[in-house]
Fold:
Amino acid sequence: MVRSVSVDLNNDASLVIDIPDALCERDKVKFTIHIKTTLSSFQKSEFSVPRQHEDFIWLHDTIVETEEYAGLIIPPAPPKPDFEGPREKMHKLGEGESSMTKEEYAKMKQELEAEYLAVFKKTVQVHEVFLQRLSSHPMFRKDRNFQIFLEYDQDLTVRRKNAKEMFGGFFKNMVKSADEVLISGVKEVDEFFEQEKIFLLDYSSKIKDATAKAEKMTRSHKNVADDYNHISGAMNSIAADNNTAFKKHLEKCAEVFEKLRKLEDRVASDQELKLTELLRYYTRDIQAAKDLLYRRARALADYENSNKTLDKARLKGKDIAQAEENQKQCLRKFDKLSESGKKELTSFKARRVVAFRKNLIEMTELEIKHAKNSMSLLQGSIEILNSN
Amino acid sequence: MFLSRLRLPSSETQSTLTCNGQAAMSGGCGRNPPPFPDNEDQEAELDTRVLDSDEDDDDEGEDIFTGARSKPITPTSAPDEGDIFSEEGSYIRSDVHHATNGLHSDEELDLFTEATVELTLTNTTSQGRREIIGPTASACNTTHVPNSILKPSIVTKTMEELEEEESGDQFELNIAVTNPEKIGDGMNAYMSYKVSTQTTLPMFLNKTFSVRRRFSDFLGLYEKISAKHSLLGCIIPPPPQKSVVGMTKVKVGKEDSSSAEFVEKRRAALERYLQRVVAHPSLLQDPDVREFLERDELPRAVNTQALSGPGLLKMINRASDAVNKMTIKMNESDNWFESKLQEVENEEQLLRRLHAAVDSLVNHRKELCINTAVFSKIVAMLGSVEENSALSRALSQLAEVEDKMEQLHQQQAFSDFFILAELLADYVRLLGAVRCCFEQRMKVWQRLQEAQSTLQKKREAEAKLLWANKPEKLQQAKDDINEWESKVSQYERDFERVTCTVRKEVLRFEKEKARDFKQHIVKYLESLLHTQHRLVKCWEAFLPEAKAIA
Structure:
């Protein structure tokens, strides 16, 4: 099963992961991870395991901390499921139940369910893609902790606690705000990385902006859908009384608004899933790419420092061998990061283009579909009203 | 505790992501999307193909689609803009049966080519430009009404016309209010409107004619009509409301979209007001109405302060209070009046609520418009930074699509307001006027009661005099009794007449209301249809661009 933001992630049948089911209980979301594999490293060929959001974060963090992966773009961690909106609505619903009419209550409940569903879809999608990025990457799929995440048949909570104590958040605690300065400050010898640096820094701020503005636009669509809901309710109230032609017209119109609301809601949530989520995801992915550049820049800085140290050692005539060894290691590390970084950034480009293409096509097709359905609805209703 | 489960069957996700099975494969095929159908036959085909996956996609398991699967109606392309413009500019009618072509020297005729009740899609051209309503710089102090906010107004046949039509008569009367012009400068400035009439009614001097009127003239007309007819129990259409803020902006010369919008709002409201007035059979006969329509120069109406929006409302409310304070209950032979009044009051409340919801829609749609424009710009910027050239091009195209979306939302907001919101606002006030006429009837009844009790007193006085044997005062008493007897029978006749009139008026009003609402609802749905149609076109044009990304 392929989710939109990243494509071609489940092509390799040797390890196929998806999230077919999720359960929301108060604050916690439990995802059911479903795995199908032909790899011998796994005990079973098909199985499922329940995981919480925190487990995903643990997995992400352990991967970030692993030095071996410094030259790779680390798939961004899925954001915490945010049920704040629906929760607020549910609260209002509970409080106002006594003061609402039956119709108002039913309508609010409908709105609430739609919102819950939308948040669910988003969060499942983003958690699934995270796992699929890992499973489709030649190095990450072999990661020991990834395997534990997938296979360990008990609660991961205990293991998570231990991990925290072990790692101490080495990379994470580094001052992230300095990374842009560091990246732009480094004297770049490699043309490829120079271009990447310029591109990523610029793109990063623009895509972040675009995400925020897409969110606002989607929010407005939802507001319009809500208004259709209220209009429908108000019209039904007027039509409730008796059976004159006037009331019949209003009733018909109320019906149209109710259906339009559903369509408009779909438009809003499809736009969110295909466009806003795409932008959101790539904002985080771009950040992951920038993190890679950062790590490489640090390695370059280390290498330059090691050169200085070696020169000093030579001058003083002390600890030369040690300094030489250090310098060699730094260079090796830097070269390794550059080599793998280049590969990663190149495939990242391709991945981004393909994802945009897929999502834009899907979004457009959905927009067309919803608009045509609206047209059918409206045409039918106009005919009915005119024939009365 | 809220427990919810999301289950995603594989078929569902399949179709969420790929609109239909073919799309997934064509995605792999690369850059050559199937040629996009651009004629109606193929459109229908596309329609059904898209629909097949609907069932899968519908999470809630409901079928939200109506049975009708007719081909989408493409709007008839707008006739040349020159068709509908007089030299001073005119408003647009959405009319497929548009007979005339080209500018006419007799511009009055242009405004009134057969407006059918069957209103069709609005006349925006396919380029999305909006027609100009208003003067095309014919006078020095014209307030130019910008394209962006204008919209075709509805010209409907008047009620009388429709009725005459039904009864097969030839009479016809059309009214239009157009060409707002700012006269003067500063705080003494005012807007002058052209009131054009076209009629076959013999009581008018000409068949087509026009005059210029200002807002206070309309209020003056209301005052005159009200003074004469409200006592009879007629429902007097209320005039548009005064607005100090709105007018001040215009006076001060602020030429921005909000003051242009205000002028257009007022122009449309004045037009509807007049149309309602002449739709009323007795008001049409009123010489003041005729004078208003025909006479070149009207004496300036004074004391219209009382008739400004809040003033009028205060008047109506005061009347209600007075009636509510009446402890005397009318004993009705039938419940009709009491229950009807209750109905009217309820409906007024419910319409207010509906109006508030539509108002909210207008605002949110305007917000959507702004947010879409902002989004369009950032997408354009993203496109310019994008290194992959095909994706970069697609993003700029997306920005253009979003730009077109903004225009569509803008137009729709216009329709939301002028077709729906204003209709509701009018009817809230009209229902207030209906209430007034019920109250009038009660006043007449009260007057009758008082006269009857006075008569009773006079009779008692006479009886006393007879008993006290005072012959000199007896004649006076007898005269009094005669006077009051004739008053009582006069008031009885008045009451009967008012009762009859109110009943007739309410029935006429309800018929008109049903017709009005139906017309406007249909027109509104047509505007939505038009918007959706344009939406489809925009996205269909974009789809090949998205598919061309590689």
In short: Residues 186 and 301 of chain A are 8 Å apart (CA to CA). Residues 245-316 of chain A form the longest helix (72 residues). DSSP finds nine helices and three strands in chain A. The longest strand of chain A covers residues 15-25.
